[in-house]
Write a structure and sequence with these properties.
heterodimer; A: mainly alpha; 3 helices; 65% helix; 0% strand; elongated; B: mainly alpha; 80% helix; disulfide bond (chain B); Mitochondrial import inner membrane translocase subunit (chain B); metal-binding (chain B); Tim10-like_dom_sf (chain B)
Chain lengths: 115, 93
């Protein structure tokens, strides 16, 4: 599976639940939108799905670029990633993800950006 | 379209499945093209500095080949980690 496909799958499982007409409970949308109830209509759900997917793709791209810039030697002495670069990439992705969560939480808790 | 992809869409009616699937295809295509462009720009910036000749020198060619391969491997690795973190986050919720 291509990287893009791999990360979309868990999200789609949640979305599939939310689009199911037989749901009685409020659905969980994997973004900072905790108040969505079962009443959201299909068009809205598709719109949100598309927005969420685009956001994830963008996140993935930026993450990739940032960690490449930080971890990989630009002299390109060889075609393989060496051990140091591999560890750096793993840690970079992990930290980037944590920063992403932190900021996500701050934004949803605070409501608006500070002036 | 990968079958594993559609496993997540099982619960949906056919037309919804098709719509989601088309959306995903569209996003993937767009992302691939974007990646292509950014990779070219990156490797060009990192490897090519000399404009005394019209054609790429051997050393520049090698550099570009390594750059591209390295970035693609990096991208795969990032994809793996990203997927892990994503599924962790999904199960935690």
């Amino acid at each position: 599976m291509e990287p893009v496909e791999m990360f979309l799958l868990p999200f789609l499982l949640v979305l599939a639940e939310s689009l199911n007409p037989n749901r009685g409970k409020s659905c969980k949308v994997p973004m900072a939108a905790p108040n969505i109830s079962a009443g959201i209509d299909k068009e809205q759900a598709f719109g949100m799905a598309e927005t969420e997917m685009e956001y994830r793709v963008e996140l993935f791209n930026r993450l990739g670029q940032t960690c490449f810039n930080k971890c990989v030697d630009k002299r390109y002495k060889e075609a393989e990633l060496n051990m140091g670069e591999n560890s750096c990439i793993d840690r970079c992705v992990s930290k980037y993800w944590q920063v992403n969560s932190m900021i996500g939480q701050m934004l949803s808790a605070g409501g608006q950006p500070p002036i | 379209m990968d079958k594993n992809m559609l496993a997540g869409l099982e619960g949906l009616p056919e037309e919804d499945k098709n719509r989601m699937s088309a959306m995903i295809d569209h996003l993937q295509l767009r992302d691939s093209l974007r990646m292509y462009n950014s990779l070219v720009e990156r490797c060009f910036n990192d490897c090519v500095d000399n404009f005394t000749r019209k054609t790429l020198q051997k050393q520049e060619e090698t550099c570009v080949a390594r750059c591209a391969e390295k970035f693609l491997k990096h991208s795969m690795r990032v994809g793996l980690r990203f997927a892990e973190l994503n599924s962790q986050a999904a199960t935690q919720d």
